[in-house]
Amino acid sequence: MFQTGAGLCVMVGFRARWVSFLLLLWLAALTYFGHPFWAQSGAERATNESYFLRNLAMMGALMMVMATGAGNLALDNRTQGGNGARR
């Protein structure tokens, strides 16, 4: 439920920077504890390493949203006076 709601917030640009930060924290913990490929072998290791690297890529995208914001079409920009300027 958290993932779905947070993903929708980032997608429409509602408090995208804060939500991206929360998602980043949650995804970092999930990645470390949920995909410990370093403690496995064989096909299980390959599968978990793939998931681990996929999650690292998503964390990079979340950091980009944290750094740049959601963009000109974000809901947050529409409520800040309507000029579309970034904060």
Into which percent range does the helicity of residues fall? over 70%
* Alpha-carbon distance between the two ends: 29 Å
Please, how many domains? 1
Beta-strand residue percentage: under 5%
Number of strand segments: 0
Task: Describe this protein's structure.
- By secondary structure, this protein is mostly helical.
- It has one domain.
- Helix content is 70%, strand content 0%.
- The protein is built from four helices and no strands.
- It is elongated.
- The model has no long low-confidence stretch (mean pLDDT 89).
Task: Reconstruct the topology from this structure.
Blueprint: H1 2-12, H2 16-34, H3 42-68, H4 75-78
Helix pairs in contact: 1-2, 2-3
Short description:
With 87 residues, the protein is mostly helical.
Question: Which key terms come to mind for this protein?
Answer:
single chain; 87 residues; 4 helices; elongated
